[in-house]
Structures are given as structure tokens and as C-alpha cells.
Specification:
This protein is 56% helix and 17% strand. Helix 2 (22-46) packs antiparallel against helix 5 and helix 5 (100-117) runs antiparallel to helix 6 (121-139). It is elongated, with a radius of gyration of 29 Å. Strand 2 (175-181) and strand 3 form a beta hairpin. The chain has eight helices and four strands. It has a four-stranded antiparallel beta sheet, with helices on one face. The longest helix is centred in the N-terminal third of the chain and has 25 residues, at 22-46. It has helices at residues 3-12, 22-46, 54-76, 78-88, 100-117, 121-139, 160-170, 197-205; strands at residues 145-154, 175-181, 186-192, 210-223. It starts with a helix and ends with a strand. The chain folds into two domains: 3-139, no CATH class; 145-223, Ribosomal protein S6/Translation elongation factor EF1B (Alpha-Beta Plaits, 2-Layer Sandwich). By secondary structure, it is an alpha+beta fold.
Length: 224
């Protein structure tokens, strides 16, 4: 027996998986599809309507089923698995992920597909339940005060000290982001964390030479 025959018998044929029936294949893909629908519903419930992408959500279901089918195919033969790795290595995804949570859901869908394809459907169900509990608990956890951008427009630079003193009454740790001075007016851009935003705006608006005041919220880190 040659070395090639030994390798073929001990390695290549050792990875053959011909015992899986069509019924088992269909059951595996069905469970993967049901768990993908479950992930679809969780994502739909948690995502705000403004940033919700139906196409991305539907892709989570297909990703789960397709990944399970790929894992089943890879288990059939080591030669097929090497060819599959080579084929998938040329795939490039160009879509930018808008929210880090979308990346988590994508990885969740792929993981469920891999686990179902490996035949551990009970573990996949436990993963879905556990992930849902963790995501919901920490997603809806009360947050602290978020940073806000305060924009003050004035017709004269002489009111700068008064503006800073007024802001300091509401937030002692404010940060001056920029200060733009032109021939006609001056603009102040500050980062603040305040509880009484209405009071701050009213008091700033009463300062002499202040023409307009705006307070803009942005997605930043929360301070507890």
C-alpha cells in the first residue's frame, strides 16, 4: 500500500459523512430557518424605525440557513471543505455597518447557522434565548446624561465671559469645542451635559448681544 493510499484511507475517507439522510438535512435547515426568523423578530423589535433596514433583517434569516447548508456540505468531505474555503475567500463585503449592534446580529446569525449545521440544534436554541436576554437587559438599561452640543451665536465677542459663566452654572465640566469670530458675529460651540436644558437656553438667550442659541443632541458616550 502506497503513502497516497494510506492518506486517502485514514484522512480523506475519515471525513466522509454519508449517513445523514434527506430528512435530517431538511430538519436541520428548517430549525436554522426558524431560529433565523427568531433573530429577525428580535432585531425588528429592538431597532428604531428611523434606522431599521428590512433588507438587512431579511438577510439575517438567509444567512443563518445558508451558513447551516455550507457547514453540512463541508462535513461531507475534507476535499469539498478545502474547495469551499477557497471559494469563500474571494467574497468581499462592501456594505458598511451603520450600528455596532448590526454587527452583533450578523455574527449571531452566522453562529446559529454554524451550530445548526454541526448538528447541535439544542445549543443553537439555548444561544438564541441567552443572547436575547443579555441584549434586552443591557440595551434597555437606563443610561446617564448624554453629551450635547451647545451652539451660541452672538453679534459681539464681549459676551464670551458671560456665556461661559452661564454655562458653568449648569455644567462645571463643559468643553469649548470651537470659537469662530467673523466681522459681524461670533459663534461658540461647547460640549455640555445638563439636566435643565430649557433653563440654560432661556438664560443664555437673555444675554445681551446673543442672537440665537441651539442645543443639539448627538450619539456619544454616556456619563454616569
Amino acid at each position: 500500500m502506497s503513502v497516497q493510499d494510506v492518506i486517502k484511507k485514514s484522512f480523506l475517507q475519515g471525513f466522509q459523512n454519508t449517513q445523514m439522510s434527506m430528512r435530517a438535512l431538511a430538519l436541520t435547515l428548517l430549525v436554522a430557518g426558524l431560529l433565523g426568523i427568531y433573530i429577525y423578530l428580535v432585531y425588528r423589535m429592538m431597532t428604531a424605525n428611523t434606522f431599521y433596514s428590512k433588507s438587512f433583517n431579511v438577510s439575517l434569516i438567509l444567512m443563518c440557513v445558508i451558513t447551516a447548508a455550507i457547514i453540512i456540505t463541508i462535513q461531507s468531505s475534507v476535499v469539498v471543505s478545502l474547495g469551499m474555503v477557497g471559494a469563500l475567500s474571494i467574497v468581499r463585503f462592501r456594505t458598511a455597518v451603520k450600528d455596532p449592534l448590526d454587527l452583533i446580529f450578523m455574527f449571531w446569525s452566522i453562529s446559529v447557522g454554524i451550530i445548526c449545521g454541526a448538528g447541535m440544534m439544542g445549543l443553537a436554541a439555548i444561544l438564541c434565548v441567552g443572547s436575547t436576554v443579555l441584549v434586552l437587559v443591557f440595551y434597555y438599561l437606563p443610561e446617564g446624561r448624554r453629551s450635547m452640543i451647545l451652539v451660541v451665536n452672538a453679534s459681539d465677542n464681549e459676551c464670551a465671559d458671560t456665556v461661559y459663566a452661564t454655562v458653568k452654572k449648569y455644567d462645571k465640566h463643559y468643553h469649548v469645542k470651537s470659537r469662530n469670530l467673523t466681522l459681524d458675529n461670533v459663534d461658540f460651540l461647547l460640549e455640555v451635559k445638563v439636566k435643565d436644558s430649557e433653563g440654560l437656553l432661556k438664560e443664555l438667550n437673555q444675554i445681551k448681544n446673543v442672537t440665537s442659541v441651539s442645543l443639539v443632541a448627538h450619539k456619544g458616550e454616556s456619563v454616569y
